[in-house]
Amino acid sequence: MELYSGLIYPAVLVWCAVLAATGIVTMVWVRAHRVLQGVVTGMWIVTAIQLVTVLVLLISGNDAGIVLTLGYLLASVALIPLLGIGRLGAPDAAALDPDPNRPVLQPDQIARVDGGAALIIAIAAAVLAWRVAVLLGAA
Amino acid sequence: MNPIGRILLIVAYAVLGLAATGRSVVQISTRLSEAPLPYLLSGASAILYVLIAIALWRGWRRVAIVGTTVELVGVIVVGALGYLAPDLWPDETVWTGFGSAYGWVPLALPVIALVVLVRGSRASAVVDASGGA
Question: Where are the transmembrane segments (chain A) (predicted)?
């Protein structure tokens, strides 16, 4: 529990803040998109570590409600693929789709979409991490 | 419609849909008899958010406009009724307090979406008119 409340939970919040900040910077300055891609990879890792840690805590007999805690955990995992939504508007991806309404994005637009998505997902992921910590009695 | 705004709206509605779906599934499956109106309303809002996200992605502009209008009216009506008739609401919904539990995103998002959608409709109408002249 000390590992989760002292290291993992703060690390998740810090990484969410980094993701949000990088998202904002990318929306303004599209060349930061490469940095954002690295931060997104880090978000996958941080989320995976959080998932494993919380699962271990639940298995080892924490009093938190399992259904709610697992629900929040699953939601935090389900959010992460949205971080790459800009790629769906890439011309080669759109060309494979017969839907004429499919948005096609230029590279700078892909960067801005990813930046905006990063900001939204960072806020949502931080709220979910906080809810899990409350359920576990760590916040 | 601006593609950046469109996709960011899709992300926002997908996140809200995920949150509302999770909340309503737990409420309806475990405590429906305690507060049927709020919990069923949370379920309906979850379906609405997912429908709007799909409509935005598929380019169903009319469905998106109707959906966001219903959402805005729902947030305002439920938010107001929460203060005017608190006995109706033994527990909170996604729209209680005008969406205050979700940082008022349920109130702000349909307004932003309607602005983007109506602007997009007007721009399309101008293009169609100039193309037909």
Answer: 7-29, 35-59, 66-86, 117-138
Helix (H) or strand (E) holding A15: helix A9-28
Categorise residue B89: left if φ over 0, alpha if ψ from -120 to 50, beta otherwise: beta
On whether any CB of chain B is under 8 Å from the CB of A51, the answer is no
Alpha helices in B32-60 (DSSP H): 36-58
**Which residues have a Cβ under 8 Å from the Cβ of A52 and sit 6 or more positions away?**
none
How far B117 CA sits from the closest chain A CA (Å)?
A: 14
* H or E element, residue B60: none
Domain ranges of chain A: 2-136
**Helices A9-28 and A107-136: crossing angle, nearest 10°?**
160
CA–CA separation, B45 and A58 (whole Å): 31
The model's confidence at residue B82, banded by pLDDT at 50, 70 and 90, is very high
- Asked if residue B62 lies in contact with residue B113, where contact means CB atoms within 8 angstroms, the answer is no
Per-residue pLDDT of A119-133, as tens digits, reads: 999 999 999 999 999
A26-62: pLDDT as tens digits: 999 999 999 999 999 999 999 999 999 999 999 988 7
